[in-house]
From TrEMBL:
Keywords linked to the UniProt accession: Coiled coil, Kinase, Transferase, Two-component regulatory system
Signal peptide feature range: none
Protein name: PAS domain-containing sensor histidine kinase
Residue ranges annotated for the Histidine kinase domain, each copy included: 293-382
InterPro entries with a match to the protein in the record: HATPase_C_sf, HATPase_dom, His_kinase_dom, PAS, PAS-like_dom_sf, Sensor_HK_TwoCompSys, Sig_transdc_His_kin_sub3_dim/P
Keyword flag Kinase: yes
PANTHER family: NITRATE/NITRITE SENSOR PROTEIN NARX-RELATED, OXYGEN SENSOR HISTIDINE KINASE NREB
């Protein structure tokens, strides 16, 4: 709960405005002065008809006034509310305050978001429910009246919890799909290399044998040479396809060598200078981390080739204690906020998901321009081999 401040959401202004009048009416009630002047009648009507639950207490946390919305919220009548201690209906979330009013009034709460100090409401049927609200005090003749606007936020919290759960499930699904995809790629790359690759290599050897031993005519020789050339092209394509699916270096040499291969391929294909600054010993990581980092950098390089118009790229990977710090910079056109929010683009989303999957942090920016900078911090203590 918070002390009312001048900057309030528009929808609540009326209720807060009413609280000023309410203070006057309440102090009149406290003074046991039965006369109600025009403003207090007016304020009573506003408070009575307000859709928000409004309660006012005296300094001893006794409810001195409540509206029907508050009564509905707690499942009692207005008469039952009035005269009761506030603690019968609102439980303070902290034990170091004797009661809810003390909790709401505690130092340092003023000005903070009301959701920061949501409490627990207690309905007449014993049901607990989440509430939040705002508090305002009205001094009068040396006394203070506290008026509290309350909101039942149990439904909102239920929806938020459901949303968070479904978000978590989506994340798990995405991570499971990434793993399945990676496993399939590894499997296909291995099959291509081991089965088809071996078959093509042995065909080449047979062809060489044929050429040497069968006394082929010049025409047959030309055919054999043509076939050998085609076989060589097929083997090269197959290697390229298998490497694109899953570089063998990732499984056999480790992340550093896989990144070197990626860098070399990038430079050769796109003619963009690319520097890899890393220490092989610092990049001996398990398969999960190695694959994730490789795919993140692969996507970053693909993006640079497709979008950046860059002439120079630097990839920096270094460890500080248990964290791996990765920076990828290019000197291209830079990335904008709109670029990062493109609904149809999945590359950056995938990148972020992989980083979050390893409980790391990622920042993508064009702040320091020219070009784009990606900074990633990954906790790798549990991934070091
Ligand atoms: N290095 C970069 N320099 C400039 N713009 C970039 C860079 N990287 C990404 N972008 C911009 O950010 C957008 C989003 O990138 P993202 O990788 O998410 O999607 P994409 O590359 O367009 O498509 P895909 O889903 O195939 O990856 C890109 O369309 C591009 O406009
Ligand atoms: Mg992309």
């Amino acid at each position: 709960m918070r002390q009312q401040r001048s900057a309030r959401p528009r929808g609540r202004r009326l209720a807060v405005f009413a609280l000023g009048f309410l203070g006057g009416r309440l102090t009149a009630r406290l003074d046991q002065d039965g006369s109600a002047d025009a403003p207090s009648r007016h304020s009573r009507r506003i408070v009575h008809n307000a859709s928000e639950a409004i309660i006012a207490t005296d300094e001893r946390s006794r409810i001195v006034l409540a509206n029907p919305a508050a009564a509905r919220m707690f499942g009692v009548t207005v008469e039952e509310l009035e005269g009761s201690p506030l603690a019968r209906f609102i439980l303070a979330p902290e034990t170091d305050h004797p009661g809810p009013l003390e909790y709401f009034k505690a130092d340092g709460r003023a000005g903070r978001r009301s959701t920061d100090y949501a409490g627990t409401g207690l309905r007449a049927n014993g049901e607990h429910f989440a509430i939040e609200g705002s508090i305002a005090d009205t001094p009068h003749d040396g006394r203070t009246v506290y008026t509290i606007i309350l909101r039942d936020v149990s439904e909102r919290q239920r929806v938020q919890r459901k949303l968070a759960r479904s978000h978590d499930q989506l994340r798990q699904l995405s991570s499971a799909l990434q793993t399945i995809r990676e496993e399939e790629r590894t499997h296909i790359a291995r099959e291509l290399h081991d089965d088809l690759g071996q078959l093509l290599a042995s065909l080449r050897m047979d062809l060489n044998l044929l050429e040497e031993t069968c006394g082929a005519t010049p025409h047959a020789l030309r055919l054999i040479h043509g076939m050998d050339g085609n076989l060589l092209t097929a083997i090269t394509s197959l290697r390229r396809i298998a490497t694109n699916l899953r570089p063998r270096a990732l499984d056999e040499g480790g992340l550093y060598f896989a990144l070197q291969g990626l860098r070399d391929d990038f430079v050769q294909r796109h003619g963009i200078a690319c520097e890899l600054l890393a220490d092989e010993a610092e990049l001996r990581l398990d398969d999960q981390a190695s694959t994730a980092i490789f795919r993140i950098i692969q996507e970053a390089l693909t993006n640079i080739a497709r979008h950046a118009h860059a002439t120079e790229v630097t990839m920096n990977l270094y460890r500080i204690n248990s964290e791996l710090l990765i920076t990828i910079r290019d000197d291209g056109r830079g990335i904008s906020e709109e670029d990062m929010e493109k609904a149809e683009s999945l590359g950056l989303i995938g990148m972020r998901e992989r980083v979050w999957g390893l409980k790391g942090e990622i920042t993508i920016s064009a702040d320091e321009g020219p070009g784009t900078r990606i900074d990633i911090v990954l906790p790798v203590a549990n991934h070091t081999v």
